[in-house]
Amino acid sequence: MAILLLSPYATLRLPFEAALIRQAQAALVVTGLLLVWGLGHRGALGRWRAAPSPIRLGLLLWTGAALLGALTAVVAGNPPTRLAGQLLSMGLLPMGAVAGLLLVRRPGSEHPLRWLPAAVVLSVVAAAVAHLVDAYLRLAGGAAVGRLYFANSVSAAGPSLLALLLALALLRRGSWWRRGAILLAILLLVAYMLGSGVRGLVVVSVPAVLLFFVLSSSGRRRLGSLALTLGALVAVAALLLLAEHRIQEWDEAVRPSLAPGRGTASLFEDDPKAGVTLPEDIAIEPAPWDGGKLRRALAWDTPTAEPIRIPDTLVVEEPGLYRLVADIGGQVTASDTTEPTAEGCLALWWLDGDRALLGELEACAAPSPGWRQVVATGLAPEGTVQARVVLYGHGREPAHWRLKKLRVERLGDEKTGRLLEQLSFFSRRLRSALDPLGSGSSAMRGSAAYRLEESQTLWHLFREAPFAVQLFGHGLGASYALDSGGVKPLSARLDPEDLHYIHNFYLFLLFKLGVIGTVAVLGALALWLLYLWRACRQASDGGRRALFAALLASWAAYCVWSIASPEILNFRLAPLWGLTLALAAMLEERS
Fold first, then answer.
1. d(CA 148, CA 191)
2. Helices 414-434 and 199-216 sit at what angle, rounded to 10 degrees?
3. Hey, is 323 helix, strand or coil?
4. pLDDT tops 50 at residue 285
């Protein structure tokens, strides 16, 4: 289990694609070895037949849907590497389940799955501690942190809710020191989950914990447990809201700005086709560090034809952490551009007394019909006495960039500023988790806007597809184009004309597997959820009931979370989901 959950941390220094391949190979090898181990014991077929019928039927439905998607992909000629990757993601769950069902208990010892909950909790807590320690060291060193992720998107966010619910189940029994250790693990998991900045995780965790306590208690104890849980959650929520309010006050406090904002500023890049020429009043100068690329200095628009130039330099009187904030709007001016790659950037150049460049603080935005706020924070390097603001464009297409509400403000000294900046980041993530579509702000959240656009596109593609494609899907590994109207993929590595990753698990099923595959997978999920519900209600032992409740709450929560993030298909977690089904079968057999 530790290898399954912690092997991604061995790939941090690899390039992104190579890291994914190594992680997938590790998951396949570990699950395959576990399956071979189970098959190596006598009576494997009998153990399979003895497994609960809902689990076996669900596994057959899930596997059949995966094979149907693979066959459709072969007929459609989908790229083999993408087919293999998505078949692996779907295949690891039944592989893990069958491997767990075939494991046997040796005479005089516990069943191997008996240790699965503790192994999951220990592995995820170890990963969470690594993230928390890394964040502390970076903050202490004056570095920016943001989300508690490592390179290559490696994190413990995916399995953290499952680990939390299993830890709550294990807390029900044991010695005082064992309960104390589990309580510490729970606190570390909660701290990491809040620090991860994963909004979907935060949203589903509260109802999942409530569901666990309702399911794990019975009779009068259920009401008392529910009341205690609600009280604890209300107290935690009150503390979080109070802290969030104080952090927001600091974040939005009015501070002196080094840059005198004067309304709106504009920049036109030369575009002979569109009849746009660069105004003579706006200076053109090469950036001193990037091979002579032209960057344009900034000038403010006025009602007259003559722009007002920002002073050549801004005086920096104190070192510390500074924040650059502005609203940027941009429009590509080339009429024949079909794949815009333009990007507008606002930068603050740190200069010494001789006006030599010491560093840069940069914030960029893609073309957008409206205004998009850009924010960048950074330390003024040692020796900085002045700064200069510039606005420029990246990309092949000529563009018109606009700027307003420019502020350059000092947040504080290095360490205090970084700590408060990190708390401010958590505060913004918490607010956006409660308001994911941005209804309380001027614009929709970027990730929510992209996911909504993606879902609308996929639903339209499904509705407009031929009947045969609606039935069987486009096959595993199939790609689609996203006409997002300015909403770009969440990663620069993704090509909007050739996307194959889908955030909504259920639209993934419809697009890749069609109605037949979708019904099969949803049927499997329904069978497993109903089985866990029945097992939880019938468990007479409190400890087993708590574990059943943790498994049921986990499956239910991740089914909801998969609307925005397909954690059930995550190849790092898929074998673990299969093993949880085998754990449930083992618990029912022992009871």
1. 11
2. 60
3. strand
4. no
Task: Tell me the H-state helices in 435-492.
Answer: 446-464, 467-472
Phi, then psi, of 60 in degrees rounded to 5: -65, -40
How does pLDDT run across 174-222, given as a tens digit for each residue? Answer: 778 888 999 999 999 999 998 887 888 888 998 999 899 888 876 556 6
411 sits in which H/E element:
strand 399-412
Alpha carbon distance 269, 400 (integer Å): 6
Domain ranges of the chain: 2-245+515-556+568-590, 264-310+320-412
Place of tokens 């606190």: 187
User: Could you tell me which residues are beta bridge partners of residue 184?
Assistant: none
What confidence category does residue 437 fall into, taking pLDDT thresholds of 50, 70 and 90? low
CA pair distance 467, 482, nearest whole angstrom: 22
Q: Which residues pair with 377 in a beta bridge?
A: 323
Taking a C-beta distance cutoff of 8 angstroms, is the pair 558, 144 a contact? Answer: no
Lowest mean pLDDT among 124-128, 264-268, 429-433, 548-552: 264-268
Query: Which string of b and e fits 416-437 if b means at least 16 CB within 10 Å?
Result: ebbbbbbbbbbbbbbebbeebe
pLDDT reported for residue 280:
44
Q: Report the alpha-carbon distance of residue 553 to residue 576 in Å, rounded.
A: 15
Q: Are 67 and 472 in contact (CB under 8 A)?
A: no
Q: In this structure, which topology does domain 264-310+320-412 adopt according to CATH?
A: Jelly Rolls (2.60.120)
Is the four-CA dihedral 82, 87, 89, 90 of positive or negative sign?
positive
Q: Tens of pLDDT along 408-422?
A: 888 877 777 777 777
List Cβ neighbours of 514 (8 Å cut-off, separation of 6 or more). 72, 469, 470, 471, 472, 473
